[in-house]
Amino acid sequence: MRAFHIATTGAAPAICDIPCPAPRPGELSLRIEACGLNFADLLMIKGEYQDTPPAPFTLGMEVAGVVDTLGPETDGHAPGTRVAVFGGQGGLAEFGCFPANRAVALPDEMTFTDAAAFLIAYGTSHVALDHKARLQPGETLLVLGAAGGVGLTAVEIGKQMGARVIACARGADKLAVARAAGADHLIDAKTEDIRAVCKALGGVDVVYDPVGGDQFKAAFRACNPEARLLSIGFASGEVPQIPANHLLVKNLSVIGLYWGGYLSFRPEVVTNSLKTLFDWYAEGRIKPHISHVLPLERAAEALELLRSRQSTGKVVVTPR
Q: What distance in Å separates the CA atoms of residue 294 and residue 286, rounded to the nearest whole number?
């Protein structure tokens, strides 16, 4: 089968012909129809992601497709079932083997491309805002990187939870995407002072930050007392250093979130969150924004769209 594969540690990924895998006990084999890309894929290429597997491995963390077979002595969705899976790797291929207990059956109305763009982005934002930050109706939510894969879902989910949403992104085109997702106020990170705009709007109660760097510092200074700052990632490349004395004075909380980590120690958090999200999708309340769908042979180009920040929402790769 074809796969976008890293053959040895430090090697660049490339389209390769590799053996089609057979499922082991506890796994299912999936005929992959779509794979959603994530910033973590870029970190894996450099060996900088916290869960980078040892080489050789195939990139692609989240997939959607049709169950082909189940491994020996494995309970799971029957062959022919349409599912989405967070596998952590292996998605940029024609077939893959993934933990059977992570597969989620898709609503009839959900396309494979929507499903491949759904789990990580919506799951991260919902667990962050609901389970971790306890966002309340009427609170003000500031979303940094608001036109990106996770940021855009935070705008949508924040509105569903009754918050006033301030969306921060770079440039008019990206801000238009955030407005279409429901943002109440917009900040152009290229030209405007994040702290000044937020303070003029009354300050913020929750910050959703997949960016880090200077944007985190500005958002930190715009927080109201008892605000919660969600550290989701560091797309800027800079991990911010937090002045603990300021946390004390304003009674602030900085909260880290690694969505995939819950699968190992509290999987019910993810399961319950995804049930809510799939219900919202079926009701038409949320809908993934996918700016690009590319074939597997253009996987390198698809990743470059993320690296160069030319995409909005999600980028999806289809192997056939």
A: 23
Average pLDDT over every residue of 119-143: 98
Q: List the structure tokens of 217.
A: 């510092």
Collapsing DSSP to helix, strand or coil, 198 comes out as helix
Q: Which amino acid is at 88?
A: G
What is the pTM assigned to this prediction?
A: 0.92
- For 52, 118, 165, 307, the CA distances from 152, given in Å and listed in that order, are 25, 12, 11, 17
315 and 300 Cβ atoms separated by less than 8 Å: no
Q: How far is the CA of 246 from the CAs of 31, 226, 252, 304, in angstroms?
A: 51, 11, 8, 38
Nearest C-alpha neighbor of 66 from the set 78, 77, 80, 76: 80
In a 10 Å sphere around its CB, with 0-12 CB exposed, 13-18 middle and 19+ buried, how is residue 198 labelled?
Answer: buried
Q: Which residues contact 294 (CB under 8 A, 6 or more apart)?
A: 301, 302, 315, 316, 317, 318
What's the pLDDT tens digit per position in 161-212? 999 999 999 999 999 999 999 999 999 999 999 999 999 999 999 999 999 9
Q: How far apart are the first and last CA of the chain?
A: 11
Q: Which two tokens stand for residue 53?
A: 């597997």
Q: In what order do the strands lie in the sheet with 14-17?
A: 14-17, 2-6, 57-58
Residue 312 makes CB contacts below 8 A (sequence gap 6+) with 147, 148, 152, 173, 174, 177, 289, 291
Read off the DSSP letter of residue 114.
H
Q: Concatenate the DSSP letters of all residues of 220-283 into one string.
A: HHTEEEEEEEEE---TTS-PPPP-HHHHHHHT-EEEE--GGGHHHH-HHHHHHHHHHHHHHHHT
